[in-house]
């Protein structure tokens, strides 16, 4: 762990230095070993958009860290940790208060605390703060890829280009709350160099999409949506079976995705393709407004 005794207290950052990312990764390793967790902040090295990071130093040591997700407008995910030797000192409360103040200034209405299901300390903190459990997700990693090889000749799958954002938005809008939210999601990612979308088109009708997030050690599959009118026909699997071989040909990076625990159909699809559960995350909602 890097030590600089001149650093003390809370620091807010929009970009991180290589040294700061290394400190965060070292802190994650400590927390993982302490509670047998799966914290992984390697994606910070490939992050292109500015975001808000909060670091807390005690006697020159990075004792706490919290990140506000770069995506979302009215709702933001918060992920963080505290050094095992510096817990029960109010550090994460200070980090959370600073993050909520930042969100309030940016018009964010709600935050989601992301907590690994096996983290006793994280679950206790969420309960102490009065946060309400909203949903849980399995984090999955691809093992041995299992292909069925079934192909519908009317279905075309290709990497989307910048001229197809409207098609992507129309599909994402069937899964998100509003068209505006879908537009924000697509436009946040479509021009970032480490992001790409794939589009599934039936005849001339766009019916499915997914987003690939290229990180240092892995490629994450996100925003995987099939239009409700075309579900149950195997098109989601065909989309995965078209994209996964491309990724495997490009690199040896692990391929990951997340799925809500109560989405049994999607979970069954991913399992049948060879994905395995690595861990499970719980999401706890909180308003950013001060309590009266």
Please describe the structure with a list of short key phrases separated by commas or semicolons:
single chain, Aminopeptidase, globular, 34% strand, 2 domains, 292 residues
Q: What top-tier CATH class of the largest domain fits best?
A: Alpha Beta
Number of domains: 2
Roughly what fraction of the amino acids lie in strands?
A: 25-35%
Can you name the CATH architecture of the largest domain?
3-Layer(aba) Sandwich
Task: Please give the alpha-carbon distance between the first and last residues.
Answer: 40 Å
CATH topology of the largest domain: Aminopeptidase
CATH superfamily of the largest domain: Gcn5-related N-acetyltransferase (GNAT)
Q: What is the percent of helical residues?
A: 25-40%
| Rg measurement, Å | 20 Å
Largest beta-sheet details: 12 strands, mixed
Helix tally equals 7
Which structural class do you get from the secondary structure elements?
alpha+beta
Question: Going across the major beta sheet, what is the strand order?
Answer: 1-2-3-4-5-12-6-11-10-9-8-7
Can you count the beta strands?
A: 12
pLDDT average, as an integer? 93
């Amino acid at each position: 762990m890097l030590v600089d005794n001149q650093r003390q207290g809370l620091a807010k950052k929009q970009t991180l230095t290589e040294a700061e990312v290394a400190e965060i990764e070292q802190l994650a390793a400590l927390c993982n070993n302490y509670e047998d967790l799966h914290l992984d902040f390697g994606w910070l090295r490939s992050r292109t958009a500015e975001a808000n990071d909060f670091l807390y130093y005690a006697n020159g040591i990075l004792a706490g860290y919290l990140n506000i997700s770069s995506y979302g407008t009215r709702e933001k995910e918060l992920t963080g940790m505290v050094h095992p030797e510096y817990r029960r000192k109010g550090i994460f409360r200070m980090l959370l208060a600073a993050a909520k103040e930042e969100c309030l200034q940016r018009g964010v209405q709600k935050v989601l605390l992301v907590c690994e299901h096996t983290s006793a300390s994280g679950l206790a903190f969420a309960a102490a703060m009065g946060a309400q459990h909203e949903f849980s997700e399995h984090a999955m990693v691809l093992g041995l890829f299992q292909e069925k090889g079934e192909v519908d000749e009317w279905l075309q799958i290709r990497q989307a280009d910048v001229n197809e954002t409207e098609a992507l938005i129309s599909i994402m809008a069937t899964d998100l709350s509003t068209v505006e939210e879908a537009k924000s999601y697509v436009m946040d990612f479509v021009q970032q160099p480490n992001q790409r979308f794939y589009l599934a088109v039936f005849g001339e009708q766009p019916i499915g999409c997914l987003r690939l997030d290229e990180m240092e050690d892995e490629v994450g599959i996100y925003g995987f949506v099939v239009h409700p009118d075309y579900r149950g026909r195997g098109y989601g699997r065909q989309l995965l079976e078209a994209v996964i071989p491309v990724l495997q040909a490009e690199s040896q990076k692990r391929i990951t995705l997340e799925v809500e625990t109560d989405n049994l159909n999607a979970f069954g699809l991913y399992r049948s393709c060879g994905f395995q559960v690595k861990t499970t995350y719980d999401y706890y909602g909180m308003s950013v407004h001060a309590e009266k």
